[in-house]
Design a protein that fits this description.
The protein is an all-alpha fold. The protein contains 6 helices and no strands.
Length: 103
C-alpha cells in the first residue's frame, strides 16, 4: 500500500499525512506498516503514535507491543520499554514464537 511505500523510503511524515487524509478509517494493519518503518528509521515519537493507534483498534495485537518495546529499547528508553511489556503482560497478550525451516 502507499503507506508502506512511503515508509520504506523513509518518508514517514508523508506516510502519516497520507493515513490522516484517507477517506476510510485506517485499520491496525495500516498503522503497523507505519510502525515498522518507524522502527527501521528510528522515529521514536511517530512509532509511539502509530503503535497507540494500532492498539486502539486491536488491543491484543502482540506485534505492536513487541515492535514498540524494541523501538524504546533501541532509543535507550528502558522505562518505556518496561511499561510496554508490563501492559502486554497485564492484558495477557502473548507473542506467537517464530519458527524457521532452514536445514
Amino acid at each position: 500500500c502507499m503507506v508502506d511505500l512511503l515508509g520504506r523510503t523513509g518518508r514517514l511524515d508523508e506516510a502519516e499525512e497520507f493515513v490522516s487524509k484517507m477517506p476510510v478509517q485506517p485499520d491496525a494493519i495500516i498503522w503497523m506498516s507505519l510502525l515498522g518503518s518507524c522502527r527501521v528509521y528510528r522515529s521514536i515519537e511517530q512509532g509511539k503514535h502509530s503503535a497507540e493507534c494500532a492498539l486502539e483498534l486491536d488491543p491484543w495485537l502482540a506485534s505492536a507491543y513487541v515492535v514498540l518495546s524494541n523501538i524504546c529499547a533501541t532509543a535507550g528508553q528502558w522505562d518505556d520499554m518496561v511499561k510496554v511489556r508490563k501492559v502486554m503482560a497485564h492484558r495477557a497478550v502473548k507473542k506467537e514464537p517464530g519458527c524457521s525451516w532452514i536445514e
